[in-house]
Write a structure and sequence with these properties.
This protein has 259 residues and is α+β, with helices and mostly antiparallel strands. It contains seven helices and eleven strands. The protein has a single domain, classed as Jelly Rolls. Belongs to the iron/ascorbate-dependent oxidoreductase family.
Length: 259
C-alpha cells in the first residue's frame, strides 16, 4: 500500500513544512502529540484483521517492576518509590510476525513518515532495530491486563491504536514528573501518585489515532482492561543509531525468544 492509502494525507499533509512545525511545537509543549483518524478506514481495517489473526501467536507475560524499570536499590526499603513494584501484563507479537504486505510495515518503512517523525522529534536519523523482533510490535491487553506505571528509557515512543476495548485501558500520564538527565528522580512526586494523592491526565483516543509521546520524564500507564474486547496497539520503534538491538534479557522477558 502507498502512504496515501494508509494515512489521511488531506488532513495530515506529512510533507507540508508548516504542518510539521505545528506538530513539533505541540510535542515540545505538551510532551504528547495526538493525531486522531490518522489512518484511513481501509488501512485500519487491514490492521485490525492482521492483529486479530496474529493474536494466537502472541507471547503473553506478566512482570513486576519499579516505575523506574531498574533493579532493586539496596539503599532503600521495599516501600520506597525506587523499589515499589507495579504489574505489567500483556501479549505481544514481534516484527517478524508482521507481514511484508502489512500497512503497518509500509507505514514504518515509508520515507515520508520517517521524515515526519524526524522533524517532529528533532532526531537527525531513524533506524530500525537490528534484532529482527523489536521494530514493529503489536500489543494485546485482554480483560484485567494492564501496563503499570513507568518511565520510558527511550526519548520518545510512537503508538497506533488498532482496537479499543469497551471499558478501561485508559492511557494516563503526568508530564515531566522527573528529570532523568539531571538525576532528579522526584521520589516524593512518584510516591504521591502511587498513593493516589495525585490525579493523572487521561488521554482519550479511538482506533486509528497515532500518538507520539515523550515518556522518559513523563510517568505513564495503561489502566486494566475492564471488558472482554481486547485492546490492540501497534508500537513503531526506531533508533537514532544503526545496528542497535534490544538486549537479550529484554527480548526474553517481553517476547519469550531471542530471534
Amino acid at each position: 500500500m502507498s502512504i496515501e492509502e494508509i494515512v489521511q494525507t488531506a488532513e495530515y499533509p506529512l510533507a507540508d513544512p508548516s504542518f510539521l512545525d505545528r506538530c513539533k511545537k505541540a510535542l515540545d509543549s505538551a510532551g504528547v502529540l495526538v493525531l486522531p483518524d490518522f489512518i484511513t478506514s481501509s488501512a485500519l481495517e487491514a490492521m485490525q484483521n492482521e492483529a486479530t489473526q496474529g493474536q494466537s501467536k502472541a507471547y503473553f507475560c506478566k512482570q513486576s517492576h519499579s516505575v523506574y524499570l531498574t533493579p532493586e536499590n539496596p539503599l532503600f526499603g521495599a516501600d520506597h518509590p525506587a523499589n515499589r513494584q507495579v504489574v505489567s501484563s500483556k501479549g505481544c507479537i514481534c516484527d517478524d510476525d508482521v507481514a511484508s504486505e502489512s500497512p503497518l510495515r509500509a507505514l514504518y518503512d515509508a520515507r515520508l513518515f520517517r521524515d515526519f517523525v524526524k522533524h517532529v522529534t528533532g532526531e537527525s536519523a531513524l533506524h530500525p532495530y537490528a534484532d529482527g523482533l523489536s521494530s514493529i510490535n503489536i500489543h494485546y491487553a485482554e480483560r484485567g491486563q494492564e501496563l503499570g506505571w513507568h518511565f520510558d528509557n527511550s526519548s520518545f515512543a510512537i503508538t497506533l491504536l488498532i482496537q479499543k476495548p469497551d471499558a478501561g485501558s485508559d492511557f494516563e500520564y503526568i508530564k515531566d514528573l522527573r528529570n532523568a538527565d539531571a538525576g532528579e528522580m522526584n521520589y516524593d512526586g512518584v510516591a504521591a501518585l502511587l498513593d493516589g494523592k495525585t490525579k493523572p491526565k487521561v488521554l482519550n483516543m479511538d482506533p486509528g489515532t497515532l500518538v507520539l509521546f515523550r515518556g522518559r520524564n513523563s510517568i505513564h500507564r495503561v489502566s486494566p482492561n475492564e471488558s472482554d474486547k481486547t485492546r490492540m496497539l501497534a508500537v513503531l520503534a526506531y533508533n537514532s543509531e544503526p545496528g542497535i538491538e534490544l538486549s537479550e534479557s529484554a527480548r526474553m522477558t517481553f517476547y519469550g525468544r531471542l530471534s
